[in-house]
Amino acid sequence: xxxxxxxxxxxxxxxxxxxxxxxxxxxxxxxxxxxxxxxxxxxxxxxxxxxxxxxxxxxxxxxxxxxxxxxxxxxxxxxxxxxxxxxxxxxxxxxxxxxxxxxxxxxxxxxxxxxxxxxxxxxxxxxxxxxxxxxxxxxxxxxxxxxxxxxxxxxxxxxxxxxxxxxxxxxxxxxxxxxxxxxxxxxxxxxxxxxxxxxxxxxxxxxxxxxxxxxxxxxxxxxxxxxxxxxxxxxxxxxxxxxxxxxxxxxxxxxxxxxxxxxxxxxxxx
Length: 270
Description:
One of its GO terms (molecular function) is acetyltransferase activity. This is Arylamine N-acetyltransferase. By secondary structure, the chain is an alpha+beta fold. The chain folds into 2 domains: 3-188, Arylamine N-acetyltransferase fold (2-Layer Sandwich), CATH 3.30.2140.20; 193-264, Arylamine N-acetyltransferase (Arylamine N-acetyltransferase fold), CATH 3.30.2140.10. The protein is 33% helix and 27% strand. An 8-stranded antiparallel beta sheet has the order 5-4-3-2-9-8-7-6, with helices on one face. A hairpin with a 2-residue loop joins strand 12 and strand 13 (223-228). The longest helix has 15 residues, at 67-81. The termini are far apart.
């Protein structure tokens, strides 16, 4: 694994330093260059929470990834630069799902003048790191909020047009073994949202572009539009054109994608 190769992958050509300016710039560059996606889960390909796996997939093979891969790679790169990084276990939907949600998200804390939450793995979350301070915040025109729940848990509230409305997290260092157990469940269980339908999300300079099932969404502050992807060829073309993902093998999944989309979502609203 090579830091220069990662920085080239995200298009960062400055000299990295251990400061907030660098952290913010690399956070933004990562999200503009590398999409969030669960397509290996859809294709039933193996994976884990190791940095080696994330580097090979996201840098060497120029794919996207989900939280374990996106934040795993990002946290490793920050550590190589010299940042103090803590891998923390998150829980998307903890109120609704209970303990089964623990570790279904990987979150990073970066300690500089104060602690920051750095999260390139939440898909449609904040494009920049945010201070670990209770209260509302606005980033790139979207409103977020951090809320302490009790002595152990915090909650990150996503913006109003986001997918998952929140995730909880603790400040303790996560167990990689526990994260990997949850990762494998999310990869294989029919109850996992990630086995249900394709999820692909990418930040753009003015918003977000997202695939859910066969729906293509575009989000800008205060605005969300969506269209239906009509064919397998169009789906593969959108993956390549909007997300930089060359995956013609997704054509074989198109009938299942259409069937599950209709079961879960019906037709998208105008």
